[in-house]
């Protein structure tokens, strides 16, 4: 049997105004980190592209650390051609400042109405080069979770999307537990009961293996 090559993204990105100020979000990267650990334990050849995070490296996993969305896209491109499955669990910042100041801005230098621009849509960009790869997205939402996730699945030509409500303290960013639903292209929705992120990661990898690589 061929060894499955799995590319995973996790954590936030930081989009800097200057060396110390940035746009980001509270993602800890735990869910994607546990998915990478589960992927490795399942016997897959695993690469984890990890945004700013205090999480350690994982023995047996190729961990590449990045900061910005542009960085993450660049590293994903490096590994994408060779992978069989991409699991995009990172919480990528949607916007970045148009201007970057290369020193810590003094108070009187700070633009109170900064101009922003969109960051690259990593998953959409890579989906245009999909071929026969399996693409799994994540939709972290606070309302209309399944509806928004289904829209993202269709827009980005995904094989499945993992939907989770991050508006709840017990399953939101940085929590130890999560609650997910996996939506397939067929419209089928698979409910994964609330559990620890480690347990869910193991269940998710087993499910993806059974569904796409048997």
Describe the structure.
The protein is an alpha/beta fold and 214 residues long. The chain is 27% helix and 29% strand. It is built from five helices and twelve strands. The chain has an eight-stranded mixed sheet with strand order 5-4-1-6-9-10-11-12, with helices on both faces. α1 crosses α5. The mean pLDDT is 94.
Quick structural overview:
The protein is α/β, with parallel strands linked by helices and 214 residues long. The chain contains five helices and twelve strands. Strands 5-4-1-6-9-10-11-12 form an eight-stranded mixed sheet, sandwiched between helices. Strands 2-3 form a two-stranded antiparallel sheet. A two-stranded antiparallel sheet has the order 7-8.
């Amino acid at each position: 049997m061929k060894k499955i090559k799995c590319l995973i993204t996790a954590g936030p990105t930081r989009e800097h105004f200057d060396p110390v100020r940035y746009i980001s979000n509270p993602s800890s990267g735990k869910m994607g980190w546990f998915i990478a650990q589960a992927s490795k334990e399942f016997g897959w050849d695993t690469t984890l592209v990890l945004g700013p995070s205090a999480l350690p490296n994982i023995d047996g996993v190729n961990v590449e650390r990045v900061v910005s969305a542009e960085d993450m896209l660049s590293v994903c491109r490096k590994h994408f051609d060779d992978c069989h499955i991409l699991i995009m669990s990172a919480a990528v910042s949607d916007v970045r400042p148009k201007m970057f100041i290369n020193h810590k801005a003094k108070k009187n230098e700070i633009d109170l109405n900064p101009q922003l621009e969109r960051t690259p849509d990593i998953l959409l960009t890579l989906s245009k080069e999909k071929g026969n790869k399996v693409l799994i997205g994540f939709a972290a939402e606070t309302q209309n979770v399944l509806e928004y996730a289904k829209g993202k699945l269709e827009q980005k030509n995904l094989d499945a999307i993992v939907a989770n409500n991050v508006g709840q303290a017990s399953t939101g960013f940085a929590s130890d537990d999560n609650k997910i639903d996996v939506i397939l292209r067929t419209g089928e929705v698979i409910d994964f009961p609330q559990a620890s992120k480690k347990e869910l990661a193991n269940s998710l990898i087993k499910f993806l293996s059974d569904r796409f690589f048997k």
